[in-house]
Amino acid sequence: ARRMRASVLSSLYLTLLGCSCLSNALFVLPNSGPKEYTDGDSTHLSIRVNKLTSVHTQLPYDYYSLPFCQPNRTLYFPENLGELLAGDKWESAPYQIVIGKDTCQELCTKEYNKEEVELFISRVKEEYLHNWQLDGLPAAVPKILQDSEGKTSEVYIPGFPLGRYPAGEDGREKGPYYLNNHVDITIKYHEDAKLYEGKRIIGFEVIPSSKKYDDSAVANGQVTHCSPSDGRPQLQLAIPEGSDKLKVIYTYQLKWESTSRTWADRWEPYLANTDDQIHWFSIINSMMIVIFLSGMVAMIMMRTLRADLLRYAQADPNEDVEETGWKLVHGDVFRAPHRPMLLSVFVGSGVQVLGTTIVTLIFAALGFLSPANHGAFAIAAIVLFVIMGGPAGYASGRLYKTFNGKSWKKNALMTAMFFPSIVFAIFFVLEMVFVGKHSTGAASFGTFVGLLAMWLGIATPLCFFGSHFAYEKPPIEHPVRTNQISRQIPDQVWYMSPIFSILMGGILPFGAVFIELFFILSAIWGHQFYYIFGFLLIVFLILVVTCAEITIVMCYFQLCSEDYHWWWRSYLTAGASAFYMFLYSIFYFFTTLEIHSFASVVLYFGFTMIMTIGFFVLTGTIGFLACYFFVRKIYSQVKVE
Fold first, then answer.
1. pTM for this entry
2. CA–CA separation, 547 and 572 (whole Å)
3. What contacts 518, CB < 8 A, 6 or more positions away?
C-alpha cells in the first residue's frame, strides 16, 4: 500500500509539472490593459486581420486565401489554445496608420484571373465577412438603434462584408456581384491630460463600399476623390461572371475622431443587446414559471411524504403496521443496479462536467473571462475540465465501491476515457471536414498533441488519483439492509412505464433553459458576443434545482408503485432533457439558420451532439445525486425490524 501511495503521489507531481509546462505553451492571453499612443507614431499601432467567416457555411478560411493586398512581409501573431480551436489566424495587414493623421490613399492594385474571380464570387455569394482587429478591438460597422421611447443608441456589428449582391423578388441572389474594394476607417480615441498622456483607442469603425475607379482617381498612391462630396458619380465595382480577368484598385480612407467614451466603456457598443426587452422578459418569465412549478413540486412532496412519515412515527410499536407504498421495498431499494460499473462511470463524467460548468460560469459572471481576451472562455473550460478529473475519479470510485465493485483501476480508466473519447471521436470527424475544405477551423497537429497530453498526461492521472483515494475509504453504509432474495415488482400502470416517465421528467428541466439556449445558439452560430453570464449562472442554478426536484418526485412515485429500480431511471429522468435540447437544436437549424452544404450540416450537428452529450451527463448526474440523497434520507427516518 505504501508503494502504491508513493507511485500515485509521484504521478500527481509529474501531472502538475506537465500542467505547468502546457500552460506556458498553450495558454497565452493577450494584454488587455489600456495603451496610450502619441501623435506621429507609426510603429506601435497596426491592424491585424483574422479569418474570413460566414454564418451560411460555418467554415472559416485564412484571410489571405483570397488574393487581397499583402504587406511586404506578412507577420503571424501567436494564438492561444482557445483561438486555435476557434480557427483564428492573426496576420498583419498592409494598412499604414500614423497616430492622429487622416489619410486617403491607394492600398494596391490587383489583377485577378478567371479562377480568382470565381473564388471571389463564391465567397460573396456565401456572405463572408472580414474580421479585423485594432488595439484588441474588432472592426465593426456602426448602427443606430431607436427604442420605443425614441431614444437612440449606437451599437457595433462585428465584421464587415466582403461584398454584396442584389436579391431577386424570390429572395435568391441575382447578379451582378459587387466587391467591396474601399473601406472608410474611423478610429475613435479619448484623451485625458490629467490621467495620462496620449490617445487611448476607444472605437474601431469600418464601413466598406464598392467603387469603380477610373485612371484619374489615383495619382501617386493618393486617391483624388475619396468621398462623393466632390460631385463625381460613385460607380460600383461589379465582378463579371465568367470573366477571364478583373482589375481591382483597393483604397482606404482613415479618420481620427475624438469621443467622450472612456477606455473602461469601450466594449459597450459591441455588447449592446439589440433586443433588451425581449431578452429580459423571456429570462424573467422563464424564471418565474420554473420557480412557481418548483415550489408546487416541493410543497406536494413535503405534504405527501410528511404524512407517510408521521403515520409510521405515531404508530404503536407493539402493533403491526401494514406497510404500503415505498416502505414495502426497503429491503430492495439499495440493491445494486444492472451494470454498476457503467452507472458509476456516467456519474463520474457528470461530476466532471458539473464542476467545470459551475466554476467556469462563476469566473465568467465575476468578469474574469472578458471578450477582450479572445479564447479565454474555452481555455478556462478546458483547464477546469482537466482539473476536475480528480473529483470525477473520486465520485465514480466511491459509488463503484458502494456497489461492491472490485476492479477500481478499470473503473478509473473508463471514467477517464468515456466522455473525452466520445468528444474526441466526434471532434476528429469534424476536423476531417475542416481539412477537406481547407479551412482554418482544422486544428494543427501540435494542437492535437497538446490536447492529448492534457487528457492522457494530466486528466487521466488525476482521475486515477481520485479513484484510488475513494477506494481507500470504506463503502457508503445504507440506512437499511438489502434482502438476499429480490422482491417481485408488480405490474405498473402505463404512465409509470420507464420510457413515458423518463420523457415526461425531462420536459421541465428543458423548459428552464430553452429560452437562454436560443441566445447561446445565436451567439455560437451567428458569430455574436455572448456576455450575460450573470443571467446564465442564475438559469443554471434554476436548472440544478429543477433537475433535482423533478427527479425526486418521479423517484418517489416510482417507489410508491413498489418499483425499486430507481438507480438508472433517476439518471435518465433528468438526462432526458438533453433529448429535448437536441430536438430544439433541429428546430433551430431549420427555422433560423440558412445552411445548405453537406459539410456545414455535418459541422452543426457534430458540435450539437457534443453539447447534447455533455448536457445529458450533466443533468443526469444532478438528478441521480439528488435522488440518491433523497432515498437515503427517507429510509433513514423509518424503523425497519
1. 0.86
2. 11
3. 588
